[in-house]
Design a protein that fits this description.
Number of helices: 19
Mean pLDDT: 77
Distance between the termini: 59 Å
Helix content: 55-70%
Number of domains: 3
Low-confidence stretches: 1-14, 74-86, 621-627
CATH topology of the largest domain: ABC transporter transmembrane region fold
CATH class of the largest domain: Mainly Alpha
Structural class: alpha/beta
Length: about 625
Amino acid sequence: MAKRNYNSNGQAKPELEKVPFTKERFKEALALFSYIKPYRFKFFLSMLFIGLSAMSTMVFPFLLGKMIDAAGAETTKVKASLPMSEGFLSAQLNQFEWTLNTIIVLLFVQLSVQMFFSFMRIYLLTDVGERSLAAIRKDLYKNLIAQPMQFFSEHRVGELSSRLSADLSQIQDAISFTLAEFLRGIFTLVIGLISIFWISNELAFVMLSVVPLVAIIAVVFGMRIRKMSRKAQDQLADSSTIVQETLQGISVVKAFSAELYELNRYSKNIKSVVDIAIKNGRYRGAFVSLMIFSVFGAIAFVMWYGSTMIQIGKISAGDLTMFVIFSAFVGGTFAGFADMFSTLQKTIGATQRVRELLKQTPEKLAFKTLQTTKNFQGAIRFEQIEFSYPSRPEVQVLNAFSLKVSAGTQVAIVGPSGAGKSTIAAMLLRFYEPNKGTIYLDDTASHSIPLSEWRSQMAYVPQDVILFGGTILENIAYGLEQIDEAAVIAAAKKANAHDFISKFPEGYQTMVGERGIKLSGGQRQRVAIARAILKNPRILILDEATSSLDSESEQLVQEALDNLMQNRTSFVIAHRLSTIKNAQQIVVIEKGAVKETGTHEQLMSNTTGLYKRLVELQFENVGLYSK
């Protein structure tokens, strides 16, 4: 999972965990590169341009060196001071006359060619990276939303969102940028090393004895500074958390006269931030000072040694210039490999986490327009259902639960808390499958009906209605490929929602806000009921649909529910027993099994029954109880 990291304001931002290289993790990372396969031509072409870009870049210091040599005379030939100069290429270069005018033209030709190569490598890799990452995102999202409810009970939403954002962004950077820079660095390193040995073996060995030392200093200090910076940011974030918690709970702080306590807590945290920041400043100061001394000292030493070689005629001034620039390329590449290695570790960690999600077994859903193969009537039968949640296998929630409901019947499910009422709704929707027993729809076993087709026969109106951040029209028509506005309005009228929707300035185009925050509880419920009416299901599941509403809203919602329940099998789960008196069948459950069943009058006539006791407990103090 992503580690915490924060910016200078203490705001959270993702920092991915680095994992060590292993053969298995590397294979997991390579598996995601299968998404590049459809774009392999562009990918390999980009690799070619990376190589050409690196080669063209390395021509620049060569031409600068020739320009310096040419400045001392009208024409200057390439110095042939190395064994490699006996080759065909060196022989040709020796015969070429290098004038200042010729070199400046060649420089601009080289820059133009390099510009084209750089553009092509960036463009092609970006194209491949974006397209392949889009495919990964789609497959990952598809697999996520197809996971069973058990999966979401075991994973936090923030963690899953991080994998869709931070992890995939890390992979995208690796494909579009890090991979290109790594390969370009390899090319640059190889060409640079060849070039400095081509210029002078002696000077090359001198340089290589110094550069690794500078690179090691940079890596060691860099790791330590990053670690200290992260620690300081974590402490700063903790102080921001203290401020946030204190201000959000300011009434409690004042009620307990805890201002001094909170001030001391905040001051202690801020002191830790200052201490860590000062310690980090010492490391940064030592690092910068040492790097300045090392880098400029190394340059000075190489220049001094090279100057002595010029004096005795081993190399020219232009050759020394070439050598210094090539050495800078080599040293910079060495230093860059440390950051690239760190990024690669993060990428492997990200690909491992993404692959874990992609390998999760999803529900068997139909990701296409459903073609219902059978005209179901809506009769439901539970036969000896036994069930316990995967997270609590030792707790038996449903115990030999059996129930038969005819098509079009309104059934109320009641019972004490923890009896298994909401679990029955979850079983009806097949959020979970029973450990034992079978659920039938019109005498067809649930496992014989595709999951998407099964759920297409049902509509669900929960207590806490979830609306999506679009318009009212889009929320009522949720799940439909094409929106029929007239049908939406008709459904809203049946749900007693049309009047309040019409009063909004934008009507059905009104934005509901995140989770429907711009609407009241009763309005959200009626929008959800309109959504269920528009779906026109065979089976309706109402889970505490009116329990959190005021009396006026409850009356409007109850009327809408009565319209919704007409001519369809309805399961009403309720704690407020006054709302289910008119149900055609009331099922009382206790400890996951059916305790009683009948109408309100029949159950009330049983003086020792559980239903009568629940009614008495709920209404005896408000004068609503009636024999």
